[in-house]
Amino acid sequence: MNTNNTWYIIANPAAGGGKVEKKWPSIQQYLIEAAVDFEIIFTNRKEEAILLVQKAIKNGFRKIIGIGGDGTNNEIINGILTQTTVPSRDIQYTLLSMGTGNDWIKTHKIPRDISSWIKYLKKNNLGYQDVGLVKFHKDGKLQERYFANVAGLAYDAYLVKSHTKTKSFFPSKITYLIQLLSSLISYKAQKATVRFNDEYVRSQFYSINIGICKYSGGGMQTVPHAVANDGFFALTLFGNVSKTKIVLNTFRLYNGTVHKLKAVTAYKTKLIHIEKWEEDKVDLEVDGEYIGGIPAQFQLMEKALCILLP
Question: Is residue 252 pLDDT above 90, yes or no?
Answer without folding.
Answer: yes
